[in-house]
Structure formats: C-alpha cells, structure tokens
Design goal:
The complex is a heterodimer of chains A (145) and B (360). Chain A has 145 residues and is α/β, with parallel strands linked by helices. Chain A has four helices and seven strands. Chain A has a single domain, classed as Rossmann fold. In chain A, strands 2-1-3-5-7 form a five-stranded parallel β-sheet. Chain B has one domain: Cytochrome-c3 Hydrogenase, chain B (Orthogonal Bundle). Chain B is built from twelve helices and eight strands. In chain B, helix 2 runs antiparallel to helix 3, helix 3 packs antiparallel against helix 9 and helix 4 packs antiparallel against helix 5. Classes of the chains: A alpha/beta (145), B alpha+beta (360). Chains A and B meet through helix 1 of A and helix 4 of B.
C-alpha cells in the first residue's frame, strides 16, 4: 500500500443483485467504514474508473451493459466481483435468467464472497484491487519502455 | 421559435442513478415531456425456483428478493405458508417479528433520507444519515448475526430470541437515535436550500395516486390513509398507532411522511418491548402445504403482496410476489411528466425505488 503512486477511481455497478451487496458497498464508502482512506474515490463514470466493483449475477438483459461498461474503462483496469452472486450466481444460479457470475462476460480479478458480503471483506477486496491496479500499471509502463 | 424535441437515454448505469432502471426522457429544452421506462436489468426469475427448492428452503430465496427489506420478504412468505398450513405462531415470535420489521423500516427510511440528500447534492447530510443508519445495523448484528440479510424467519416462527436485557438496551439506543433524528429532520424539514428542491416538486394529486395505484409513503403523502399494518399481521393488531398522511402531495410531503414514520417506528418498537410476553418463539411445522393464500404487508416502500399455492408436496406450485416499487412506477412516470431535467434523479428517488424488488 505504501508505494501506490496513483489514486484509483472506483465504479460500482449493480448487476442483478438483491441490493444487499449494493448497500454494503455504499456503506463502505460512508464514514463508518470509509474505504476512501485507502486512496480510492467513488465515481459514476466508467470512462474515469480504474476499479469496477460489480455485484449480482449476469442475466440476458444486463450482459451487454456490463460488457459495455468494462470496455469503456481505460487500461489498466481491475474488476472486483462483490458477493456470492457476482462470484458464481449464488442462490439464483438455477434461475432461468441467470447466466452465472460476473466472470461469464468479463475477466474478474478479485472475488469477494459473502451473502451479503460484509463491509470488512469488501474493504479487503478494494485494498487488494488497489495493489493489483498498481502492479498492472507498472507492468504497462515497463512494456512501453 | 418552436424547440425541437430530443431524447436522452437515462440509465441503467448513470452517475446519479442508485439502481439499474432505464428511462428514455423525451425533452423539450430542459422540460421533460415524457418518460418511457424499460426494465429487466435485474430480473432473475426467482419465483421459478419453487420448482427446485422446497418450501422451507424457499424462505432463503425470497429473502433475497431485496436486500433492504429482506426481513419483511422472509416474514411475509412465512406468514403465507403458516396461513396455508394453519400454523399458529407463538405470541413472542410475532412480537419479535414486529420489532425486526420496524427496525427494518427505520434503516430503510434512513437509507432513503441519505440518498435523497445525495440527490439534491447535500453530501455531508448523506454521510450523517448513513452514519446514523449504522446504529440500526449494529442492532441487527447483535440480535441476528447479519447486517442486511439475516435469515431469522422460518415457517412456524423465528429462529432467534432476543433476551429482555438486549431489548431494553435497544430501547435506550433508540432514544439516542431519536435525539439525533430530531437534529437531522430539522435540516430536511426547515432548511431553505433543501425546501427549494423539495417544495412543490413532483405533485401527485390524491385522485392520481389512487387511479395509478401508488403504494406506501407515496400514497400517504398524497393524503390517502392506507396502511396495511392496520390489518394486524404479526403483532400489529395489539399495537396502537395512527396512519401518517400529508396533504401537500409533493416531494416535501414524501420526505415529511417518511420522517414521521421513523418516529412512529421507534414508538412501535417501544410499545412492543413493553408488551412482549415470555414464551416460545416458534412451533414445529409438520407436513406439506396444501391450498393457497394471499398476504399483504406494509414494507418501507409500501404494500407488498404475496401469493402462494401448495399442492401437498414439499415443492410449492406457484409463488407470486408483487412489490411496492412496481406499483409506484406509473405514479413516477406521472410526476416526471412536465418536470425539469435536473429534478429527474430527485423524483426517481422520491418513490424510494427498489428495482431488484420490482424485477425479482
């Protein structure tokens, strides 16, 4: 954490979650848990975002939306699947409209389990995402040289 | 000069939208002429799971219809099954359900107040509301072990008891919460800047609210006194409360109604703690449900309807859930017509949208 050179921006998208993980993600950004102390800032614009927090599984309607958001994000980018639904489809896995976890349409780097995921584990996921973002950023820089 | 109409696609992912709904806003300059919704981004099809999960497991699925009023979804489902199977829940179990219900309403309304503050750009107020909401979540965690989804319902009663010292500690905490709420409510109800954003915005007349089938605070803020809690499910029949309404019919009235409902929830919890009897919290449920039942409850967002039909096997034949946000979308479209573009996020918020409820 000590040698992070940039402050990554966070984007949150609600796939098809039950809102449980969404409100926990939001709770993470508010004073009691305050994930922003790890140097991240919440944004609503995919084109400004470095880390995507995605909650909920993928269904036929939102698959293209998730893909589009992912493609709009600049490189390097990190995807963090928050909650069991985003990891595997969770309790809704057998529903006719659920394809599975977020990794069915976009590459996922970090999986945060839990139903709903607890703020502590979401923060852990964010901290890992920040470190991974830094690593990817440095790799990109050395490739350019 | 006649202006040209333009269409702004709004959502499902948008910086000011809390939840994935898509609206096509037809604009005449800055004025919204029409809003055309399209939904389905959160549709999972959980009602179809009745064929794969038995009626006891199904409780854990319906609870995840919505993470905000998850307790009430679980409770409604269980009460529906209990009615079908003629199971009498012990009085203590019913009181515990009432207490958790009202705590859910408190946290949901607090969450809504915060999002409302965020919608009109008052960020520090948003943070204050969410800080206060954590006190309620701490109570949930102390009594059930979960923060948002806690699976304490089961057909036949509840799975966890609250000892009396815990209940009294909660009442003490709620007193502190109420004092803080007075301070926060003062800003929402009296601050000049806040009032300019809320007063007279999004008028929904009583006739429109009735005809469009609005539910919950949206309906009561238009002066129609309808509260499903008066039907007396759980332990509401033993408790004394009035239906909170307002005649202003605007966004301010919706905010006012919700704030007064929070005071009422605190009062209801106190009443329930005073009256709660000792005894069992659940009875064993034997056999499989056969028959059908309709159940209506008052969730923080309004009236939810559950229908279940059993055929004597452990798998239900059908379950149908109608949630309050679904009922409020026509009313939302009505209020959006003729409003300014900058008021759109605020108006979407005043119905307290829960899209994952709506689409299940």
């Amino acid at each position: 954490m000590a040698n992070v050179s940039r402050s990554p921006w966070l984007l949150h998208y609600d796939g098809s979650s039950c809102n449980g993980c969404d409100i926990e993600v939001l709770a993470c950004l508010t004073p009691v848990y305050d994930a922003e102390r790890f140097g991240v800032v919440n944004t609503g614009n995919p084109m400004h975002a470095d880390i995507l927090l995605i909650t909920g599984g993928i269904n036929s309607q939102n698959a293209s939306v998730v893909e589009q958001i992912y493609n709009q994000m600049p490189n390097p980018k990190v995807v963090c699947a928050v909650g069991t639904c985003a990891c595997t489809g969770g309790v809704f896995k057998e529903c006719y409209n659920i394809k599975g976890g977020a990794d069915t349409v976009i590459p996922v780097d970090i999986y945060v389990p839990g139903c709903a995921a607890r703020p502590q584990s979401i923060i852990d996921g964010i901290v890992q995402a920040v470190a991974l973002f830094q690593k990817k950023h440095e790799e990109m820089k050395s490739e350019k040289k | 000069m006649a202006s040209k109409k333009s269409v702004v696609p709004f959502g499902p992912q948008h910086p000011v939208l809390p939840e994935p709904i898509h609206l096509d806003l037809v604009l005449d300059d800055e004025k919204v002429v029409e809003a055309i919704p399209s939904i389905g981004f959160v549709h999972r099809g959980l009602e179809s799971l009745v064929k794969k999960k038995d009626f006891k497991e199904m409780q854990y699925v319906v609870e995840r219809t919505c993470g905000i009023c998850s307790f009430m979804h679980g409770m409604t489902y269980c009460e529906t099954i209990e009615h079908i199977m003629d199971v009498e829940v012990p009085v203590r179990g019913r009181y515990l359900r009432t207490i958790w219900c009202e705590m859910s309403r408190l946290h949901s309304h607090m969450l809504w107040l915060g999002l409302l503050a965020d919608a009109f750009g008052f960020e520090s107020l948003f943070y204050q509301c969410w800080r206060m909401r954590e006190q309620i979540l701490d109570m949930f965690e102390a009594s059930t072990g979960g923060r948002v989804i806690f699976s304490v319902n089961a057909p036949g009663g509840v799975l966890k008891d609250m000892p009396s010292d815990m209940l009294h500690a909660f009442v003490e905490k709620l007193d502190g919460f109420e004092t803080e709420l007075h301070k926060i409510a003062d800003i929402f109800l009296n601050d000049y800047t806040v009032l300019t954003r809320l007063k007279g915005v999004g008028i929904l007349t009583p006739e429109e609210a009735h005809d469009l089938g609005a539910a919950g605070p949206m309906l009561r803020a238009s002066g129609i006194a309808r509260d499903t809690r008066k039907l007396g499910y759980a332990a509401y029949g033993d408790l004394d409360f009035d239906i909170i309404t307002s005649d202003d019919c605007d966004s301010f009235a919706r905010c006012d109604v919700r704030i007064r409902e929070m005071y009422q929830s605190i009062q209801l919890i106190k009443q329930a703690v005073d009256k709660i009897p000792e005894g069992d919290i659940a009875v064993p449920v034997k056999g499989n449900p056969e028959g059908e039942y309709f159940m209506r409850v008052e969730q923080p967002r309004g009236e939810a309807i559950y229908y279940a039909k059993g055929n004597g096997t452990k798998f239900l034949e059908r379950i149908r859930i109608r949630t309050p946000t679904f009922a409020n979308i026509p009313a939302l479209l009505k209020t959006l017509k003729g409003c300014q573009l900058s008021d759109v996020p605020l108006l979407i918020l005043t119905i307290d949208p829960c899209i994952s409820c709506t689409e299940r």
